[in-house]
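Table S2 (text version). Query chain:
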Amino acid sequence: MLDFSRPERRLILIFLILGLLSTGLSYRKKIFFQPAETIQIKEKRILIDINKADRMQLERLPGIGPVLAENIISYRDTAGGFKGKEELRNVKGIGSKKFENIKDLINISE
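Corresponding structure-token output:
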């Protein structure tokens, strides 16, 4: 009925394979690449008590590294503890901007 030469059969086979691949890829794209659903997670905020926190706990605060954490601990030990959040500004390395970034993440114990 249909007699195709060997090169024609190869060409037809190549087109069939390419057609199947493109169909499979478009199906895969529909299944696997759908936009992810956005889930909003409310994270419980844990306040760090700067009168009791160790160096590692202080380093969890944004902008506080090992040196600044040690400065906070040294000031705390020298001053006998912090009386209020504002006193944290007296620590070398904590300016207004850094204080504004962490003031809602800290608390003071007696």
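Notes on Table S2: The chain is about 45% helix and 5% strand. The longest strand covers residues 48-49.
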